[in-house]
Amino acid sequence: MRTLVLLALVGLGAQLVDGSLGMAYGVTSTTLLLAIGTNPAAASATVHLAEVGTTLASGASHWRFGNVDWKVVIKIGIPGAIGAFAGATFLSWLSTEIAKPLMSILLLALGLYVLLRFTLRGLRTDRLGQPLRKRFLTPLGLVAGFMDATGGGGWGPVGTPAILASGRMEPRKVIGSIDTSEFFVAVAASLGFLFGLGTAGINPTWALALLIGGLIAAPIAAWLVRLVPPRVLGSAVGGIIVLTNVRTLLSLDSFPVSDGVRALVLGIIAIGWAAAVVYSFRQHRKAVAAEKAETVGEPEAAAATAV
């Protein structure tokens, strides 16, 4: 029972982050399942099974709040589903000895990308309104879908920053469209795992616990996306993913290190993570202050011109 409650809380927290940032439900949930010893393919399959429900609820909530661009959803969602099915089938054929370190490395890479991307660069907004082309969204969907299925997460960490970096959509619409299109990815990945694994190793009770937590959080997250600073949240989530997966890798027989070295490495990462969150928060406050100053300066400049 304690495990189910923990999974429900993880599902709730992960969906709050995913729905307000456009990423990290799969990465966060899969990382936890790996940490408690779940088979990598079964972990990804369980998470994607839960995501069928959470992404549907999240997409409906974002649509209700006006956060969805349906053209982008279709253009990226269909190739994403193709990539996810291929990735799920590929992961199902790998042995556990190969799959666990491979998945942890993929998750670590995604976590580093999220952490560095949001901490150092923030968000770009100078191209708002320009259309996103199919030749950009189709390969992005294929790669993100494949990464999502093989890494247990990756649709958001790959897709959301890529579209945000283009500067062509409002952040809330990027997040809403990515979350909505993830429904296609979750369905395709689940079918791929059922094709490759059958029901072996998939824990429907765990999937249900993750789903319940996600369903509670979905409408809250769709509302929060208008309020929470994505830069700060991105740094926080990226750090959690990096710390957890480094811990997983250092616990494998492939990386024989002493407890003291492990503690030192994790301590250094934790300090760097805290510094990244503080830096992102300060940069966010500076950006808000600069925006307010610019807004106040415009009427003053107009008054001076009139005089």
UniProtKB/TrEMBL annotation:
<feature type="transmembrane region" description="Helical">
    <location>
        <begin position="206"/>
        <end position="225"/>
    </location>
</feature>
<feature type="transmembrane region" description="Helical">
    <location>
        <begin position="183"/>
        <end position="200"/>
    </location>
</feature>
<feature type="transmembrane region" description="Helical">
    <location>
        <begin position="232"/>
        <end position="250"/>
    </location>
</feature>
<dbReference type="GO" id="GO:0005886">
    <property type="term" value="C:plasma membrane"/>
</dbReference>
<dbReference type="InterPro" id="IPR051598">
    <property type="entry name" value="TSUP/Inactive_protease-like"/>
</dbReference>
<keyword id="KW-0812">Transmembrane</keyword>
<protein>
    <recommendedName>
        <fullName>Probable membrane transporter protein</fullName>
    </recommendedName>
</protein>
<keyword id="KW-1003">Cell membrane</keyword>
<feature type="transmembrane region" description="Helical">
    <location>
        <begin position="72"/>
        <end position="94"/>
    </location>
</feature>
<dbReference type="Pfam" id="PF01925">
    <property type="entry name" value="TauE"/>
</dbReference>
<feature type="transmembrane region" description="Helical">
    <location>
        <begin position="262"/>
        <end position="281"/>
    </location>
</feature>
<feature type="transmembrane region" description="Helical">
    <location>
        <begin position="140"/>
        <end position="163"/>
    </location>
</feature>
<keyword id="KW-1133">Transmembrane helix</keyword>
<keyword id="KW-0472">Membrane</keyword>
<dbReference type="InterPro" id="IPR002781">
    <property type="entry name" value="TM_pro_TauE-like"/>
</dbReference>
<feature type="transmembrane region" description="Helical">
    <location>
        <begin position="101"/>
        <end position="120"/>
    </location>
</feature>
<comment type="similarity">
    <text>Belongs to the 4-toluene sulfonate uptake permease (TSUP) (TC 2.A.102) family.</text>
</comment>
